[in-house]
Design goal:
The structure is a single chain. It is built from 2 helices and 8 strands; from the N terminus they run αββββββββα. With 170 residues, the protein is α+β, with helices and mostly antiparallel strands. The chain has 2 domains: 58 residues; 95 residues, Jelly Rolls, CATH 2.60.120. The protein has a 4-stranded antiparallel sheet. The chain has a 4-stranded antiparallel sheet with strand order 2-7-4-5, with no helix packed on it. Helix 1 packs antiparallel against helix 2.
Length: 170
């Protein structure tokens, strides 16, 4: 009825290996869905445009960092495939980070508009996170915890059996 120590140890080790594979694949997928553009020259008043393909229901996020000391005013927004503007932000200085859930399938565009008269270097990170990658990362962590618990259980069972044997032959 109960799980034997040796079986729990084998299952725990197998789950550790599975969790490492699942978690690694998910993290690699998450890393590969984020587009990074560093040291892009932003000249006012023409916009810099960055694109990403996303499906409805996927989280979209962007971060814009200003790499040079400037007092220029910047405007950022996401333009949906249908032409609607989302997450419009006006900022001066360090940068901005925003996120939302895509409500349409297709090519989304991030517009970064330098409203000042000085050129600035910017870094942009634009990404969409498919649900299966997020779920895979959580599943990998959950399987890891279950594997560790089974390994601890197997060592506890071995300790109890050793103590039981010592009591029996005392």
């Amino acid at each position: 009825m109960f799980l034997k120590g040796e079986t729990a140890l084998k299952m725990g080790i197998a789950l550790l290996i599975v969790s490492i594979v699942v978690f690694s694949v998910s993290i690699f997928g998450i890393y590969s869905t984020i587009n990074s553009f560093t040291d892009v020259k932003s000249r006012g008043p023409s916009p810099n445009i960055f694109s990403i393909n996303a499906s409805a229901g996927e989280p979209l996020s962007y971060t814009v960092d200003i790499n040079t000391n400037t007092t220029n005013n910047f405007t950022t927004y996401l333009l949906s495939p249908g032409g609607q503007i989302y997450l419009e932000s006006n900022f001066t200085g360090a940068g901005v980070s925003r996120s939302m859930v895509a409500n349409q399938n297709g090519n989304w565009h991030l517009y970064v508009l330098n409203r000042g008269n000085q050129s600035s270097n910017i870094s942009v990170h634009l990404g969409s996170l498919p649900f299966y990658l997020e779920a895979g990362a959580y599943a990998g962590l959950t399987i890891l915890v279950v594997g560790i618990v089974l390994i601890i259980y197997s060592f506890d069972m071995a300790r109890r059996e050793k103590n039981r044997q010592a009591e029996r032959f005392r």
